[in-house]
Amino acid sequence: MSDRGDRGNLLLPTLAALALVAGWLALRGFQTPIEPPTEIAQARPRYHLQDAHWQRFDESGAPLFVLAAADLDYFDDASMQLAGVRLDTYADEGNWRLEADRGMVPAGETRLRLEPLVELRGAREHSGRIALKTPTLWVDWRARTLSTDQPVEASTAAGSTLKARGLRGDWAGRHVEFLDAVRVRHVLRD
């Protein structure tokens, strides 16, 4: 009879333990799975390139621009972060060379934002050279435009200077419009 009593003493705790495990498994099935935060997943680039060189051509096969970056991170949403950026635009009548410490292409965009200090140097066939500085600049390679709403400083090889707020310009430098608070100091040639 003691043999039978010992089995009953062991059976009851074993059944209780099995009931607890079954209950835990049932409750676990109703919980939502824990996903890593989206910000963390998006913060990691899909690709990282060093000394990147990107050249784009127009419909006729002529070079449209050449972009060089010391570092380029490409993300799953097709956005990019760049460091040590130099961009050369090409057009029949002139070109721009743009340099900045950083650049970014937002997801789904066809334009590049350069910052924190952007230096632009342009040359046109008949009007000489111009140098500009601005804190940020948008470069739209599809529309072939440059633009900013930030302060702009410009100077020419002849010594003329210009300060303004905002700029819109075309790819070749044929048309550059300074938007607001324009101040010009013009130096006459001898």
UniProtKB/TrEMBL annotation:
<dbReference type="Pfam" id="PF06835">
    <property type="entry name" value="LptC"/>
</dbReference>
<keyword id="KW-0472">Membrane</keyword>
<protein>
    <submittedName>
        <fullName>LPS export ABC transporter periplasmic protein LptC</fullName>
    </submittedName>
</protein>
<dbReference type="InterPro" id="IPR026265">
    <property type="entry name" value="LptC"/>
</dbReference>
<keyword id="KW-0812">Transmembrane</keyword>
<dbReference type="InterPro" id="IPR052363">
    <property type="entry name" value="LPS_export_LptC"/>
</dbReference>
<keyword id="KW-1133">Transmembrane helix</keyword>
<dbReference type="InterPro" id="IPR010664">
    <property type="entry name" value="LipoPS_assembly_LptC-rel"/>
</dbReference>
<keyword id="KW-1003">Cell membrane</keyword>
<keyword id="KW-0997">Cell inner membrane</keyword>
